[in-house]
Amino acid sequence: MGRESRAYWLDSGDRAAVTLRLEWDALTVRGARRATVPRTEFRRVDVTDGVVELEAASGAQYRFQVGQAASDWAEALARPPRPLDEKLGVGPDVAVAVRGALPVTALADALVDSPRVAPWEADLVFAVVHDDAALDTLPVWLQETGVVAPLWVIHGKGRHCPAPGDAAVREVMRDAGRHETATSAIAECWSAIRYAPGKP
Known about the structure:
The protein has 200 residues and is of the alpha+beta class.
């Protein structure tokens, strides 16, 4: 899960109430002002008297009043993000099965070294729910294919993504008897929830 905090965006004497959220791939700012800054664009991070200053590769500068959490925020912003393959637990020694088309290149790249096998032989299963039908039929597919491995459900994130969101996924998977064990951001419009069979 990402780091999130309420803050004030300071700009030329103005102070706007915002919410900061740091995911593996970007810092998003929502509220009275909005911005998305990819982590690959981070160039300089400083902290002074509860204010975090971030400079992007474009030359844009951001100042956020975070208060006592400013030092923790500065440390998190300066820390290199974990690679997506590491967050998802994949690699050459992890056989995977995939249901549905992978929605973004970052996810395809993360899985490129993992051998593809049948769902019942996989160490880890990925199911992409592009629409309600894909989500609604997922429990039946899991049962029919005999999946016993941990499952990542790739779902939509945010108002602009037409795919089902996390609330819909959690409802369907809870009714299917699966329990949530982890979450991971995938891209600006996609995220993932990891499930294990049975009750925790």
